[in-house]
Automatic annotation (TrEMBL):
Alphabetical UniProt keywords: Coiled coil
Family annotation (SUPFAM superfamilies): Nucleotide-diphospho-sugar transferases
Source organism of the structure: Microbispora bryophytorum subsp. camponoti
Name used for this protein in its record: Glycosyltransferase
Pfam families: Glycos_transf_2
Length: 553
């Protein structure tokens, strides 16, 4: 039984130790696109000539991408090495030439300036024997050491003696460390690099070849498509190689990012922070909404499609499936045409840029696919809320219960593309695909009413974009007014606080003055009492006829 990896948690697999007595059986094709620089190519092939993986299961395909003078195969090379020519410029075209000629169960990309350690291919292949949907990446070190001779590379037992000191592939190693070895990374495909990555050939059958329109960023775009095909991405620190010189990104990171981001943004919805525009369309949309046009009336299908297009999620495309190529509209009696509703749908949506009319469902490169039965309409933020559920729970499927009766359950389904692609690779005969998705990614049910799905007759009216804009402007103006009012009140409070502080200061001074006055009054009272006593004693003395002397104490 094929192992079923949950998410990108490849730690469930236990590869054999390097050099142990395991029995390889899979054939690997190492594809090397090359342009000029014969000296570095010779070193790459010398490194491949001393691999521990069985020579009978290893083929090497070098693709000369129009070098002048043409490249040649050196004396030190693997025994099954071929040299092909791709005159059309571009690394993607050169790789596709090698991919088309490859016969291996696994395709191992390698650049012509990378020298692998002797166990590098074995380190990759031990993983591929465990599951047919893996992508393994080597750890590269970038060296500026003087280039040795090919014989030195083929003869040494330690490449570090020839190429150290060297720098690590810092951003990849940092990504791996931050994501617990990519197990917890939301975008593990980012690690796919053409310099030293291997992929099951079965995945390329689903993902397709490299995109020649990508002048930079090809590896990331290819990695994204492999992810949608069901790949699990593995960084193997025991698969090691040396890159001769710094990478392009090391030499000019800002310029590389500027170009690659411009190309990747259109094709990789996973990098959502690059898609900053609120409403524009992209080559690969975030969500593909699938509606069976033949399963409902013109009115029901239109209600569903229009509701989807009116929602807050604009990074989407609607796919209407139906027998469009069979339609021949009736010209003499159109109202009696049995396929009139399909004719109307085609006329209504042919020129809508976000709607595609297809005859049959096919694979998608969008990370999410939403299936909605005709006649059911999501509220304005219904799809957005569903996406939040799927992303937040990292599930493979969210089913939306719309209605249930004696005939069964009617539901909408938001599917994670990579989950269903991987399930298709491992599902056994007679097994339900949803069960395999549940085992590897998990599934979840929600209530349609709670998430804003309504029957067409009960669906709320659309919010006019201009009306919504005016309300937004009014709300912003009200916020500004209230902000100013708050600032005014804050100023008033500040003045009151200042006045209160003055009052508190005056009160302290008053209390001090009152204390002083109380002490003075107390002293005066003492003096008055003394005078009263003195007068009383004098009166008594006069009455007795004796002299009285007031004695001060």
């Amino acid at each position: 039984m094929t192992p079923r990896i949950r998410g990108n948690d490849y730690t469930a697999l236990q590869p054999p130790a390097l050099g142990s007595s395991w029995t390889p059986r899979l054939r690997v094709s190492v594809v090397i696109p090359a342009y000029a620089d014969q000296v570095k190519l010779d070193l790459t092939l010398a490194g491949l000539a001393r691999q521990t993986y069985p020579a009978g299961l290893l083929e090497v395909i070098v693709v000369d991408n129009g070098s002048e003078p043409p490249l040649r195969l050196p004396e030190i090379r693997p025994r099954d090495t071929r040299l092909l020519v791709c005159a059309a410029p571009g690394r993607a075209r050169a790789r596709n030439t090698g991919l088309a000629a490859a016969t291996g169960d696994v395709i191992h990309w390698m650049d012509s300036d990378v020298v692998p350690e002797p166990e590098e291919v074995e380190a990759h292949m031990r993983w591929h024997h465990l599951a047919p949907y893996l992508s393994v990446t080597s750890y590269l070190r970038f060296t500026t050491a003087p280039l040795p001779r090919p014989a030195d590379v083929a003869g040494t037992d330690d490449l570090a003696k020839l190429f150290e000191p060297a720098e690590p592939h810092a951003w990849i190693e940092d990504l791996v460390q931050r994501s617990d070895g990519l197990v917890r990374s939301p975008r593990p495909f980012s690690i796919h690099i053409g310099g030293a990555s291997s992929v099951s050939a079965r995945l390329f059958e689903r993902a397709g070849p490299m995109d020649p329109e990508m002048i930079l960023g090809q590896d990331t775009e290819m990695g994204y498509r492999l992810a949608q095909a069901g790949a699990v991405f593995i960084p193997d620190p025991q698969a090691r190689a040396y890159h001769l010189g710094p990478s392009m990104r090391m030499r000019d990171s800002a310029s590389i990012s500027r170009v690659s981001h411009a190309l990747v943004t259109d094709r990789v919805p996973g990098y959502r922070w690059l898609r900053t525009h609120p409403s524009r369309q992209w080559k690969v949309p975030q969500v593909e909404v699938l509606v069976d046009a033949a399963a409902g009336s013109y009115d029901d299908v239109r209600a569903t499609v229009d509701g989807v297009l009116a929602g807050t999620v604009t990074d989407l495309a609607v796919v209407l499936t139906g027998p469009w190529d069979e339609l021949a509209p009736e010209q003499r009696a159109p109202l009696k045409d049995p396929r009139l509703d399909l004719v109307l749908l085609r006329a209504h949506y042919t020129h809508e840029g976000r709607v595609r009319l297809v005859t049959a469902e096919s694979d998608t490169q969008s990370p999410y696919r939403l299936r909605v039965p005709p006649g059911w309409v999501p509220e304005e933020d219904g799809i957005g809320r569903l996406l939040d559920v799927l992303r937040g729970r990292e599930r493979g499927l969210v089913s939306v219960l719309l209605t249930e009766d004696a005939e069964g359950v009617t539901a909408a389904r938001l599917e994670r593309t990579e989950a269903f692609s991987r399930a298709a690779l491992v599902v056994e005969e007679g097994e339900d695909l949803d069960d395999a998705v549940d085992e590897m990614f998990g599934t979840y049910w929600v209530d349609g009413e709670t998430f804003g799905f309504h029957a067409a007759a009960e669906a709320p009216a659309y919010v006019n974009r201009r009306t919504a804009y005016r309300k937004q402007v009014q709300a912003q103006a009200e916020v500004e007014r209230l902000t100013k009012e708050v600032e005014r009140l804050r100023g008033q409070v500040t003045r009151w606080r200042d006045e209160a502080a003055q009052w508190r200061k005056s009160a302290v001074e008053f209390r001090r003055e009152i204390g002083t006055l109380r002490r003075q009054v107390s002293a005066l009272r003492g003096q008055v009492s003394a005078l009263h006593r003195a007068r009383g004693l004098r009166g008594i003395a006069r009455g007795l006829g004796r002299p009285f002397t007031f004695k001060k104490t």
